Amino acid sequence: MSKYLVRRLLISxxxxxxxxxxxxxxxxxxxxDPFEELATNPNVPPEVRANLRHxxxxxxxxxxxxxxxxxxxxxxxxxxSFVSRVDVGTxxxxxxxxxxxxxxxxxxxxxxxALPIGIYSAMRxxxxxxxxxxxxxxxxxxxxxxxxxxxxxxxxxxxxxxxPFIYRADISATGWRWYWExxxxxxxxxxxxxxxxxxxxxxxxxxxxxxxxxLDYINTARAKGLSERVTILKHVVRNALIPVVTLxxxxxxxxxxxxxxxxxxxxxxxVGSLLISSILxxxxxxxxxxxxxxxxxxVVFNLLADLLYGWLDPRISYR
Amino acid sequence: MSAPPPNGxxxxxxxxxxxxxxxxxxDTLWSETWRRFRKHRLAALGAxxxxxxxxAVVVGPFVYRVPIDEIDxxxxxxxxxxxxxxxxxxxxxxxxxxxLYGGRISLxxxxxxxxxxxxxxxxxxxxxGQMGGTTDHALMRLTDLFLSxxxxxxxxxxxxxxxxxxxxxxxxEMGVFILVVIVIGGLRWMPVARLVRAQFLSLREKEFVxxxxxxxxxxxxxxVRHVLPNxxxxxxxxxxxxxAAAIIAESSLSFLGLxxxxxxxTWGRILFDAKDNxxxxxxxxxxxxxxxxxxxxxxxxxxxxxxxxxxxxxVLSSASTGQDxxxxxxxxx
Lengths: 319, 333
Prior knowledge:
The complex is a heterodimer.
Chain A: H1 2-29, H2 36-40, H3 46-55, H4 62-74, H5 88-123, H6 128-142, H7 145-159, H8 175-213, H9 216-223, H10 228-266, H11 271-280, H12 284-312
Chain B: H1 8-23, H2 29-39, H3 41-63, H4 95-131, H5 133-147, H6 151-170, H7 172-186, H8 190-203, H9 207-214, H10 219-255, H11 267-274, H12 282-310
């Protein structure tokens, strides 16, 4: 097991290096210049611009720039934003809590929807309930988040006027009111993301439970006279949830990218909206850092999913 | 059938098979698939809806001849009426005309990106599965690497960075179209490659391929005539789902303002323009959003139906659709 872990960790290093190299080459090949603004500004003489470029090492050959970037990245020094002159690490850290709060709640909502519905419809396959939820799940993952977001805003903010449709990080209220306001403005982004995740998870939970519920040991449990509740919760669900746990781990990076869209609709000041605004402003260090953080998350959660799977399911052996 | 059957049961099976074949002499693989596909009612409905959409966007602009960029400030932000069946936008442009025109591009992006993903994935998967050894290992590492790339950020980045230079080279519409299609397709071939490789690994050892090999068929003939036709089912299913995912990806890009420019009104782009006017012109957002939703839903159902129809072992519909739980859910992941 520990040998496997070490090997997996060693494999992830070239993967991460490869990803960072691809990202870096893409950015280096691209047209566009962070000092474009200075170039069009008549008050800045060209020498100053050249000096600035030199100072930031933008004129060095690409391999040199890549190595410099990669080593400082490893040391935890992510450079600073061209636009806001703030340390990239600080900038991301400012935005991260909001994103994590919204995403965590969304994933939780997804699970709360998917687990009971998936289990119940697998207990009665092809019943009315099962067909209804299967249809709803299909609708759920065919509705793109940007359209669900718009529908929610139309209904809950404009028609009913219940919820605010702009997410604010600087709520002035204090105490309980602060919590209440935060919860209220998180409802729509969380619901949009959570229901989208929940829809595909429901299908997955259903098929996982269906696969287990047909096995002989479940018949044995029933024959022993165990109640249906105990059979389902202690015997079926425990085994059926093994692949579901892996799926949840594998979905987490995907939900981060889903957050980019949701944050844009509801103007949530999170990492996703930071990425969009940095792309529009040509802010290379921030773009690099965020994309690389996303890539790291994919690799880390893939590894985590593999390990969890082996830990939960003793039938899997590591060679 | 020269060898005598070993026992009665086998004889029975053989005669039953023979009568089955006898009853339907015209049964080819595809007519059989089609028969099973029609049984999946929602898939058939999805196919019908999609067909209507395709006919509408292909023929529509010839029948409904209102220009897409006729500005009329007197009629701006109007709801549906006889003059403008789907209403107008903030410049008084007719939404039905824009949606018919933009739908062509949205659907074309989906199909073209799917083709790129399928062709690249099949080539890489077939190469890895057939060659084995170092080639296989290297190609699979490449696949893993691409799977670890964060798709949406990279998509945004590539389109933003290369949009202007391609626009200059190929004109605004073609340039962005090619860029979007290549980028979306280029980030979606990995599942197909894995699928095809797995099919190759198992089919390569099957008796009928061995028979072809022992008869002296060249490797290329073995692959093209014997292995590929048998691996095509899952690829078709994956391809169907990829069309839906590509349509969502394009709409997401346009919705974030990084896809097509405003004079090319794809459905996502119309939504992007409409989202700041929700309180007084909801129809502007509702129609293109519904169009995207209906298209994606239909395609997902078609994919579900094809999966059942193409897999002879899985006659009992979607009882165990395991890993494919969320087809289009992977739009951003």
